[in-house]
Automatic annotation (TrEMBL):
Keywords, ordered alphabetically: Glycosyltransferase, Manganese, Transferase
Family: Belongs to the glycosyltransferase 8 family.
Classification via InterPro entries: Glyco_trans_8, GNT1/Glycosyltrans_8, Nucleotide-diphossugar_trans
Signal peptide segment: none
Entry keyword annotation includes Phosphoprotein: no
Protein name listed in UniProt: Hexosyltransferase
Molecular functions (GO terms): glycosyltransferase activity
SUPFAM superfamilies linked: Nucleotide-diphospho-sugar transferases
EC number: 2.4.1.-
Length: 156
């Protein structure tokens, strides 16, 4: 059967505060590491491959887990959803991309919009006259980036 593939994390959900020695080692290693398709994500995975410890899925649900390993997902307990699958960004969601026309995805996208539209969560300046932030969203009007996407290795 062979050994399982090495762990690979998505750098969009990565928190680390290196000590000075690790920081300097990161910079030195970066100077001699050839470029890769997923830049910092590949580099961080390579650098931390021996010490990386994944957090529970409930704090970083990568959407591909819903169709690749549904038995490992407790959707009702999820706290953080990582919308990194093609077509999954809530402000661009159409349901037409592969694996996106699913009830669980639709529910998560709806929850994202519910939180986004909740005006009680809008920043309100504490001092009189201070600017507050509200709708309309600039996100919905953002132009589609002019880049070609290459599917990244999935953490799922």
């Amino acid at each position: 059967m062979g050994s399982p593939p090495p762990l690979y994390f998505n750098a969009g959900m990565f928190v680390f505060e290196p000590n000075k020695i690790t920081y300097e080692s990161l910079l030195e290693t970066l100077q001699v590491t050839p470029p890769t398709p997923f830049a910092e994500q590949d580099f961080l995975n390579m650098f931390f491959q021996q010490i990386y410890k994944p957090i529970p899925l409930v704090y970083n649900l990568v959407l591909a887990m819903l169709w690749r390993h549904p038995e490992n997902v407790e959707l009702d307990k999820v706290k953080v959803v990582h919308y990194c699958a093609a077509g999954s960004k809530p402000w661009r969601y159409t349901g037409k991309e592969d694996n996106m026309d699913r009830e669980d995805i639709k529910m998560l996208v709806k929850k994202w919009w519910d939180v986004y539209d909740d005006e009680s969560l809008d920043y309100k300046g504490e001092e009189e006259g201070e600017e507050s932030f509200s709708k309309p969203s600039i996100m919905a009007s953002m132009p589609e980036p002019a880049v070609s996407y290459i599917p990244a290795p999935s953490a799922a």
